[in-house]
Design a protein that fits this description.
Elements (H helix, E strand, L loop, with lengths): L5 E5 L2 E7 L9 H11 L4 E6 L15 E4 L3 H15 L2 E6 L2 E6 L3 E7 L2 E6 L3 E5 L2 H7 L5 E5 L2 E4 L3 E4 L3 E4 L4 E3 L2 H17 L3
Length: 196
């Protein structure tokens, strides 16, 4: 059997193509993907298989897509189209350099005067822009405004109380009075559905 496995990491996005049955003598594609998901929860798993009977065995991993070896070109074409539709990037001009940021890697965005600070899994970026303008560029429903100076990514919420949102990086963000009701409804919807 041929091993077809490839991991691409760019801006903390990981796509793993795994042969569903064969990876090595000690581990198969499903077991490897379970370990990968524990380490990188947002990794997209794409299973490659000749045997469609293994599809059901992998459903608990919620793979992004299945590629059938006997329909490789057709399925790869569909995968790339779906991947492009499900991946959103913005390009900012920070320190006279164009920086491409995957919106799913954004933890929060903070407005400070005429500048914005984007805090991501990779680091922080400061640049001149209005929060209102940037909001229109974001193609990610999980990034919402919770204060006149803050946008947060719901994927990184650790805890919520009546006054603050605590993010996974321990940052506490005030919930603005005008945003409180909408945030509560949006967050409940997010918790029920896993995303917006």
């Amino acid at each position: 059997l041929m091993r077809l496995s490839h991991v691409t990491k760019k801006s903390c996005s990981i796509v793993s193509f795994e042969d569903i049955w064969y990876l090595s003598k000690s581990i198969n594609g499903i077991d490897f993907s379970i370990k990968l998901k524990k380490r990188f929860p947002k990794a997209l798993i794409v299973f490659v298989t000749m045997n469609n009977n293994f599809v059901h065995k992998s459903m608990e991993l919620q793979p992004f897509y299945f590629i059938r070896k006997d329909h490789l070109n057709e399925d790869m074409s569909i995968f790339f189209k779906m991947f492009k539709e499900n991946t959103s990037f913005i390009v900012i001009n920070a320190r006279e350099k164009h920086v491409r940021i995957n919106t799913s890697d954004i933890i929060y965005i903070e407005a400070d005067g005429h500048y914005l600070k984007i805090v991501t899994l990779d680091g922080e970026y400061k640049f001149k822009e209005k929060i209102k303008e940037l909001k229109t560029q974001l193609n990610n429903n999980n990034i919402i405004q919770v204060h006149r100076s803050y946008l947060i990514n719901l994927d990184f919420v650790y805890d919520v109380n009546s006054k603050f949102i605590i993010l996974r990086n321990k940052k506490e963000i005030n919930i603005g009075k005008t945003y409180k009701k909408k945030f509560k409804l949006t967050y409940q919807d997010y918790l029920l559905n896993g995303s917006l």
